[in-house]
Specification:
By secondary structure, this protein is of the alpha+beta class. The protein is built from 4 helices and 6 strands; from the N terminus they run H-E-E-E-E-H-E-E-H-H. It starts with a helix and ends in a 5-residue tail after the last helix. It comes from Lentzea roselyniae.
Length: 123
């Protein structure tokens, strides 16, 4: 499974998530409105990555710890979003956690409660 398909599977497993193109890239939305993950296939450079919502200090901490894996994405970085490179060796368990955390940052409380009740993460 390629990186995009793996990312897609993680995102679409979450409650009320839809996918559509935004700025020419696959993007995932909660209830069709709020973006929580964006794929970036060489969107602003020659790297394959994704951008995701992140909680307070997550971006700063991960970029400082592993700049070869994480970055501050353009346009969204000032909002605390995290960039994650997919053209390096990827730990998909970590990516699954980041995607779920991004969802939790953006989704309404009712959907987060539904997620907690279902534990719908794919293998």
């Amino acid at each position: 499974m390629d990186a995009l398909e793996h990312l897609r599977r993680l995102c679409l497993a979450l409650p009320e998530v839809t996918e559509r193109l935004s700025h020419g890239e696959p993007t995932w939305f909660v209830r069709g409105k709020k973006t929580f993950v964006m794929f970036a296939n060489q969107h602003h450079d020659d790297r394959v990555a994704f951008w995701c919502a992140a909680g307070p200090d997550v971006q700063e901490t991960l970029v400082a710890q592993a700049p070869d894996r994480y970055f501050r994405p353009p346009y969204m970085g000032h909002r605390g979003w995290l960039g994650v490179y997919l053209d390096v060796e990827v730990d998909w368990d970590v990516v699954a956690d980041l995607v779920e955390d991004a969802y939790r940052v953006i989704a309404p409380k009712t959907l987060v409660a539904q997620l907690d009740a279902s534990s719908c993460r794919p293998d």
